Please model this.
Amino acid sequence: MNSIRTRFAPSPTGYLHVGGARTALYSYLFARKNGGDFILRVEDTDEERSTEDSMRMQLADLKWLGYEYQEGVDATTLKDRGPVGPYRQSQRLSIYREHADRLLKEGKAYYCFLTDDEIERQREDAMKAGRPHQVVSPYRDWSLKDAEKKISEGGVKPTVRFRVPDLTREYTFLDLVRGEVKFPSDMVGDFVLLRSGGMPVYNFCCVIDDALMKISHVLRAEEHLSNTLRQLMIYEAFGWATPQFGHLSIILGPDRQKLSKRHGATSVNEYRERGYLPEALSNFIALLGWSSPKAQEILSMKDMIEQFSLDRLHSAAAVFDEAKLKWVNAQHLRALPHDELWRRAEPFLTGAGLKLPDDPDWRDRSLQVFKTSMELLTDAVELYRPLAKIPLTLTDEARETMSWPTSRGVIEEWRAQLKAKSGESYLTESEFSAIQESVKTNRKVKGKELFMPIRVAILGKPHGAELKVLVPLIEMSTLIERADQVLGFV
Ligand code: GLU
Model:
């Protein structure tokens, strides 16, 4: 086991959010950079909201992002791998119970028989009096024996509460991102460790797991900063050393409000479906809270591993700028070797029902042409659509073009010229120009009367992308079929 151990501890209550992915990425990068271990722990003690489907999806997203972990729940088999499992909190309940018993025995926690109604009344009283609400439990001073006796009499299901030390001292710790953080110890009242059904709460499980899993560095979202006080108290109660904590900067939408669904896509899965590359998404989210010492904007995973360090994490809020994400994606996409780019784009093309030639040379030529117009993998769909073996859909303008007296003749000539070359798989750019020239001479048409019907016979519309670029990529048989189709339509 390495001395540097980080973990990502998602709650499987929905999709993997880009903020979660950033936490995972930093934890992964830090472990990789320092030859440490990266661990994946599933925090599924919220029985109502946790689902196995969500866990599967989140693990699949992490796998797609490429953040490999040495220990944790395997994304494919959902089995544990690693020496300090189980790695799903729902399978560690006996461990939490044992630890709660230890604190009960040592007087650091107590059984509390307050009912929800009684607690609610305390809350209302505090509100009326204008003071912050903290549970004051009359059971705080009960002996364990008395409490156990009451339990054995039946009919009650107590919670286990932590007995917050009666101290006036402040709790401080050195946050890896924000420096010294101070909490007054009277900020929290005695808090629950085990709910009345016996289910442990997040703060309790998290400390026990981080300690038993020997986590050295805990990187997590800023919203957990207030939990850290309770966690420090629990570490202290067990006499355990604390890991180093780093609370990452908040991510804002362009309106400077906390990034949420209102701002559009926030889940990794949505970006994947929209045609983003995992390395581009990682590059972009890495820069939301960290910066490269070389001021690099475009970084590969390898660059990030090499350059990552905690001292370049910054505490200022980061703004999620979709336009920049798209730009980053375009840079990564255009840098891919063509066979790799094709492999990534292909699922989107087949998903859109496009049948395209199965020919590496053709793929290479086509990507040469289209790559610079692609920012997202999904952009390939509209770029490749004119090249696919599908019948044309004629626009109204195309029909109008075909109603001109010279149009039919132009296409008949175009088709005849194509047929004359039908032994070839594709026309070259110069062959195409030569054909256009001869249609012009033979039919005595020029300008738009020449070009627009030919466009219609190729694209189904009289305007659009440059033909001399497209035609050499359209199979001869498809060109002929389209000319046939248009003549049939007229
Ligand atoms: N399960 C917590 C969450 O998803 C993790 C908190 C932590 O990293 O300590 O927010």
Remarks:
- Residues 9-11, 43, 206, 220, 224 surround glutamic acid (CB under 6 Å).
- The domain at 336-387 is CATH 1.10.8 (Helicase, Ruva Protein; domain 3).
- The chain has four domains: 5-73+251-319, 92-248, 336-387, 396-489.
